[in-house]
Design brief:
Length: 251
């Protein structure tokens, strides 16, 4: 990245923003179409940094010096939840960079339609003595997003070819066509299936995770019925193959 752009700024957050966004403008591409570039948006654009000049998909770039783990810090909790509920979440690029050399180590893409409400974790309100006393932020739990939708762009400085990135994006794009009210459950069940670490599984395997779903949906008294329904939805969407009664295979 062009680290010299940071010289004019004193704030570390401003330095990082200027350098990472400049890199994004010159290097990020659209995974939804064949556009090799994204257009940088004005700094006062809410919740997004870039847009595709062709398909108009919007993207937000979040950079950090620490490794991308199971959780990433985000902005206001209510804002993110409303974005998901109204199907207005941007596509996210999560960047891990090395400040000493202004180089990118890892870059991860999560499509806008892959965020279940369960992945947004509310943080405690800021203390009364804080400048924004009472403000409630959130973390994004990446481990609650299906593995298929955590798309690597750069892995330990190794660049993934754009055609592979686009193929993976199209693989999960059927979720975009699912109504928001149904999408969260489908994403949660697919993530749970992945946690079994099995290519083939049974209803009983997934029913063993009912306590997990009960924590996510404490007001739902029909968890097993809901799981069975989601298995059918995931099959129709092309993520599962129904082998036999109560038997399934990841596609």
């Amino acid at each position: 990245m062009a680290g010299e752009l940071a010289i004019a700024y004193k704030s570390n957050s401003q330095r990082a923003r200027v350098v990472t966004e400049a890199w994004g403008e010159n290097n990020l591409f659209c995974p939804n179409c064949l556009s090799p570039k994204l257009t940088r948006l004005s700094h006062n654009t809410k919740a997004s940094d870039f847009s595709c000049p062709d398909c108009k998909f919007w993207y937000q770039l979040k950079g950090q010096q620490s490794r991308i783990g199971n959780s990433v810090t985000d902005g206001a909790y209510e804002t993110m939840m409303k974005a998901i509920q109204n199907d207005q979440t941007p596509n996210f690029y999560f960047m891990h960079y090395e400040l000493a050399m202004w180089s990118i180590r890892n870059l991860l893409l999560v499509p806008s339609f892959a965020f279940p409400p369960s992945a947004i974790i509310k943080r405690n309100p800021l203390a009364p003595t804080a400048r924004r006393a009472g403000w409630v932020g959130c973390n994004i739990a990446l481990n609650r997003i299906p593995a298929e939708a955590r798309i690597s762009i750069v892995t330990e400085k190794q660049i993934v070819p754009a055609n592979e990135v686009r193929a993976q994006f199209q693989r999960v794009k059927p979720f975009k066509e699912i109504p928001v009210a149904k999408r969260g459950w489908m994403l949660d069940v697919l993530t749970a299936i992945r946690s079994l670490a099995k290519t083939e599984f049974t209803n009983q395997d997934i029913y063993a995770l009912v306590p997990h779903f009960k924590k996510l949906y404490p007001n739902n008294d029909h968890i097993t019925d809901k799981i069975r329904q989601q298995l059918q939805y995931l099959t129709k969407a092309g993520f599962l193959i129904h082998l036999a009664r109560s038997e399934w295979r990841l596609k």
